[in-house]
Write the structure tokens for this entry.
Amino acid sequence: MLTGGIIYKDKLCIILGSEIETSEINEKGKTGSAHNLCYFPHLKDIKAFSKEMENHIHNITLSSQRADISAYQLIDIVEKYNGVLIPAHAFTPHKSFYGNCTDRLEKIFKEKYEKVPAIELGLSSDTFLADQISELETKTFLTNSDAHSLPKIAREYNKMYMEDISFKELMKAIRNEEGRKILSNYGLDPKLGKYHRTYCEICDKRIEGKMPVTKCDTCDSRNITMGVLDRIEIIKDKKETKSPNFRAPYIYQIPLQFIPGVGPKVINKLLDNFETEMNILHKLSFDDIEAVCGAKIARNIIDAKCGNLAISAGGGGVYGKVSNK
């Protein structure tokens, strides 16, 4: 029985999808844009979807083209072709619903809000931050990596329980149906994200004053890129964070390229010996790493794994930095 997805050697399931930018107008008349992840079970479905979207996108063969419809309209087109819509990097200051369009997703999707099964957290937020918004208590959280470069593919990921690999089983896991579920989310410490704190475009600096930061503490300018942490502080509606029982744990990881002393040559040497970065970050002991690249680097990698390194928060499109305490 066909249950969706393209299966390769019974080990890999490719889920067909598209990231669509929609045009939004909030309740105050302010315009904005947001990215939506649209996933489909079969090739014929996404082909038909693409054909219809030619009516709403000027040049559909180019990436990141903005559609002339809202997410409220898009979700019906996605469902018409057996797909599901998930808000992408929901909190970032550019091209996202919470960061750029609204303080509540329900204002965007209205009576269709229940059709949205999940949101993608994005690099600058995590479960703890997102669960300060009550309307997300019924939504699954996803930690996905962008596919803009090979080294970053699967840098963030989700561990799931499914009976087999297929679109149908993936949707059950996202919807917490029949025992399928997200077991854990793996992602950056949000402080490392490029938009975690507010950034002054005039002074060209990150602002780390008392939350929420809405203007520069140096030049008093409001020409700022609002940080995810500050934005959530403004729109949250829960006095204390309490996650629903089904919520998967969020497991922080610091990529090798962020760790002090770990340059390209060291990374290649580690990968030659241990195959994947996830093996290195989550499975190896100090002794394993020391045998390949010495005690100093091994200590830094283990300290990163255990949360013993200092993190300087990112902002304004610049990743945070990691250093020894």
